[in-house]
C-alpha cells in the first residue's frame, strides 16, 4: 500500500485542499515552494496510462480549479504542473499524482533543464504513423 493509499484511507493525516468521490488534493509534506500541492486520483494506478478514463476525466475537471486556488492564495506569478510515470522518469510514489508547484521567483519552486535535440523528420514521420496506429479505444477501469 502506497503512502497515498494510506492518505486516501485516512490512516496518514494530510493537509487536504480538495476532495470529491474521485480526487484528493493535499499539500506536499516536502514542498518545493509554499503552496506545493499534490492532486491524486482515488483510483489506484501507478502511471497515467493505467488510469481509467473516468478517473482521468475527474482529475482533468478539478486540476484547473486547484491551480486557480493555488495561484490566488499564494500570489505566485506562475506555476509548474509535474507528473512523472515510472521510476526512470523520477516517480517515487507509485500512485498517479500531479504536482502543482507555485513559482514566485526564478529561485523557488521547480528548476528544470530542457536539453532539446534536432528532430529527424524521416524518423518523425514513421514514428507519428506508428503512434497513430497504436492509439486505441478509451481505457476502461479494470475491476
Outline of the structure:
This protein has helices at 3-9, 53-74, 121-134, and strands at residues 16-19, 23-27, 37-41, 78-82, 98-103. With 143 residues, the chain is an alpha+beta fold.
Task: Tell me the layout of helices and strands.
Layout: H1 3-9, E1 16-19, E2 23-27, E3 37-41, H2 53-74, E4 78-82, E5 98-103, H3 121-134
Antiparallel strand pairs: 1-2, 2-3, 3-5, 4-5
Description:
The protein is α+β, with helices and mostly antiparallel strands and 143 residues long. It has one domain: 2-Layer Sandwich (HIT family, subunit A). Helices cover 30% and strands 17% of the residues. It has three helices and five strands. The protein has a five-stranded antiparallel sheet, with helices on one face. β1 and β2 form a beta hairpin. It starts with a helix and ends in a 9-residue tail after the last helix. The mean pLDDT is 93.
The count of β-strands is 5
Percent strand equals 15-25%
**Overall CATH architecture:** 2-Layer Sandwich
Segments where pLDDT lies below 50 for 5+ residues? none
CATH topology: HIT family, subunit A
Amino acid at each position: 500500500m502506497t503512502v497515498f493509499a494510506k492518505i486516501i484511507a485516512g490512516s496518514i493525516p494530510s493537509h487536504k485542499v480538495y476532495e470529491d468521490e474521485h480526487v484528493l488534493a493535499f499539500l506536499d509534506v516536502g514542498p518545493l515552494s509554499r503552496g506545493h500541492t499534490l492532486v491524486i486520483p482515488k483510483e489506484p494506478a501507478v502511471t497515467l496510462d493505467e488510469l481509467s478514463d473516468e478517473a482521468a476525466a475527474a482529475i482533468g475537471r478539478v486540476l484547473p480549479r486547484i491551480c486557480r486556488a493555488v495561484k490566488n492564495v499564494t500570489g505566485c506569478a506562475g506555476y509548474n504542473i509535474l507528473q512523472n510515470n515510472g521510476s526512470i522518469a523520477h516517480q517515487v510514489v507509485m500512485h498517479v499524482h500531479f504536482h502543482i508547484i507555485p513559482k514566485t521567483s526564478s529561485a523557488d519552486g521547480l528548476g528544470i533543464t530542457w536539453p532539446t535535440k534536432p528532430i529527424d523528420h524521416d524518423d518523425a514521420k514513421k514514428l507519428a504513423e506508428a503512434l497513430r496506429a497504436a492509439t486505441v479505444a478509451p481505457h476502461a477501469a479494470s475491476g
